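Reader question, answered in our methods column.
A reader sent in the components of a multi-part assembly and asked whether the whole thing could be modeled at once rather than chain by chain. We filled in our standard form and ran it. Here is what they sent:
COMPLEX SIZE: two components
ENTRIES:
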Amino acid sequence: MTEPLLEVKGLQAWYGESHVLHGVDLQVHRGETVTLLGRNGAGKTTTLKSIMGVLRKRQGEIRLSGKDLMNLPLHHIAYAGLGFVPEERGIFSGLSVHENLLLPPKVAEGGFTLDEIYHLFPNLAERRNSQGTKLSGGEQQMLAIARILRTGANILLLDEPTEGLAPVIVQRIGDVIRALKAKGMTILLVEQNFRFARKVADRFYVMEDGHMIDTFRADELEGRMDSLNETLGL
Amino acid sequence: MVTVFGISLPALMGQLLIGLINGSFYAMLSLGLAVIFGMLRVINFAHGAQYMLGAFFAWFLLRYAGIGFWPALVLAPLGVALVGVVIEKVLLSRIYNLDHLYGLLLTFGLALVIEGLFRHWYGTSGQPYSIPSTFQGAFNLGFMILPKYRAFVIVASVVVCLATWLLIEKTKFGAYLRAATENPTLVQAFGVNVPRLLTLTYAIGAGLAGLAGVLAAPVYQVSPLMGQNIVIIVFAVVVIGGMGSIMGAVITGYVLGLVEGLTKVFYPEASSTVIFVIMVLVLLVRPAGLFGKE
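And here is the structure of the entire assembly that came back:
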């Protein structure tokens, strides 16, 4: 197997005095879509935030293409190639859709062009001059993803992209993720919606109480359904 | 002679002009305060001292280096902006995680120290700063005499406010500012150097105060107390406009200057309190200010 694009070893994290991640290990290879599964409070979002550096009180090892991210200031981590789409979407109300799209600086060559983005998300093109937060929940999620595609980040960290969205929008987000996969994009996805995750992921990690308790490939999923039912309460 | 409500037109227009001049300074100063508060969430009580520094820097340049008004209009605000960089890097950057009250107390203390030092060195009587030769004299508009320099101050203030508004609303830097006002962590996670953005914002706010100070030097005396006298009114302007609202600060600055001028004509006894009465009324009806978000 080739070297992983993203490698996390022994990651621990704290919210104040509260110790929430207890030695998380994970790897994501180039072109893979990897999903973190787990119940509410299992530590999935915290893992993503710790990798991105948004949560600073953390220990362990985080490497992207072999480069140590642990001691980089937050604004340097994006330039290493990580693109972050937060759970709350982070659409700026003071900016139009177009301004939201253009906000993140380009961190590398090879990102999507505006034309490509508006082709992939035609709704955004139609509403490019609207205030970002005037969009529907689904459109805001599209905008949050589109915004990062422009930057040239080589791995997307998507935190619960389907949360609170109507089934038809969830399906559309699934189509977008599959389109990104087809383009060779690497994705680390946090998702509670197991039915959605199973359609897009190549590999899964399962988290519980801040620990990584299992990992398996998509083709091993059927054999894990019983234990997943128990862990995730499906 | 033409009269309006029993007041002669030249007298009325003269007071309106004074109101507009004051409003120009209120607008420039409250704009800087609004920019700083919007981004840093710091209530910058040192703003009056920075305005005073701008005027003094212009006076220093003239007195000790023979550098006149026009170069000083650029150099003095840059000097004040540099002082702003030091204040932000050395002091303010350490208190962002604390309650807003600490920023207010810190900048209030700074203002006392800066103004105290200048009072110690230069007394309170004030230093003269002449009107640049280009703007000596006045325009006769028929119904009033308009001193050229005062006309320049009004135009300059409109240009400065407009340029700042364009910077914030129409540039990439402005988009970063507006976004970082809402969610600085996410903007930094996108790769924007937010700590530097904070420093720059404070420097721009301080520089605007310094620029207002240079423009004020030929109108008022260059005095260590000039900042104290105006900063309380400017805070009232910002509160009425809505804390952090750029447009609110500018419009309210001009309007309240005019209201103050009109009050001087029709009910002079209330002219020094009218802005504070308006502030109380606005806070009762619209606590977030006229242009602030509820």
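What stands out: Chain B has one domain: 14-285. Residues 135 and 149 of chain B are 5 Å apart (CA to CA).
Send us your own complexes using the same form.
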